[in-house]
């Protein structure tokens, strides 16, 4: 990699560098191979789902060159415009539903909680959507798997309600009333009662992630306890 590239973001494992006006480079600091991630992005894109165009994967697999997508993340847009949070959650739900209509490639690793045939992202939240002039584009496919649509949707639902340090979810962007309405809108649009059947298992899986701090874990558990599946209450 050229040493002169400007870093535009540093994630947990991967850093994003700007190459030029059109392209960015995603590089794993841990030397993790990103070929599967790139192949998943190509698969989603071929199915008509909006993801950055992958241009090249380095021979050792640790660097991916992809299209630079201009625009704020959905999270930045929510922060700038708190009144839009409900509507943007509805848009996120639309992306979730569209994604799950795509069958996953057979080689892709199985997702958590229950098996399923769908392409799932497992980190679909407002920080991983760029609002480009051509429409929303979903990034950060590191966790993508073959699995259950309702599990993936429940992950997004949980992240909207309780994600991030402090377990505040969308509370970072808007007041409680707007957040509750936005979380409810998302759930309604993707199918709340189906998600409730897997919510407790999704929370149990999610809190195993060592990046999830105690406050978020506690908020996630409360969120799930308050939303039993039909017949469990
Ligand atoms: N293709 C892209 N075009 C423009 N910006 C990007 C692109 N991919 C990532 N970014 C920027 O880098 C940030 C982090 O990227 P992401 O893939 O979500 O990694 P992580 O969450 O692991 O840091 C994004 O919020 C966005 O600002
Ligand atoms: Mg991300």
List keywords for this structure.
alpha+beta, 2 domains, five-stranded antiparallel β-sheet, two-stranded antiparallel ribbon, 7 helices, globular, binds adenosine-5'-diphosphate, binds magnesium ion
Give your account of this protein's structure.
With 233 residues, the protein is of the alpha+beta class. It has two domains: 6-67, 2-Layer Sandwich (Phosphorylase Kinase, domain 1), CATH 3.30.200; 74-225, Transferase(Phosphotransferase), domain 1 (Orthogonal Bundle). The chain is 39% helix and 17% strand. The protein contains seven helices and nine strands; from the N terminus they run βββαββααββββαααα. Strands 1-2-3-5-4 form a five-stranded antiparallel beta sheet, with helices on one face. Strands 6-9 form a two-stranded antiparallel sheet. Strands 7-8 form a two-stranded antiparallel sheet. α3 runs antiparallel to α4, α3 (85-99) runs parallel beside α5 (176-190) and α4 (149-162) crosses α7. Magnesium ion is lined by residues 11, 127-128, 140. Magnesium ion binds next to loops.
Strand order across the largest sheet: 1-2-3-5-4
| Domain unit count | 2
CATH class wording of the largest domain: Mainly Alpha
Looking at the structure, the CATH topology of the largest domain is Transferase(Phosphotransferase), domain 1
Number of beta strands: 9
What is the C-alpha radius of gyration, as a whole number of Å?
17 Å
Q: Which range does the strand content fall in?
A: 15-25%
Distance linking N and C termini: 55 Å
- Percent of residues in helices comes to 25-40%
Number of DSSP helical runs: 7
Low-confidence stretches: none
| Sequence of secondary-structure elements | EEEHEEHHEEEEHHHH
**What is the assigned CATH homologous superfamily of the largest domain?**
Transferase(Phosphotransferase) domain 1
**What are the bound molecules?**
adenosine-5'-diphosphate, magnesium ion
The CATH architecture designation of the largest domain is Orthogonal Bundle
Mean of pLDDT: 96
Major beta sheet summary: 5 strands, antiparallel
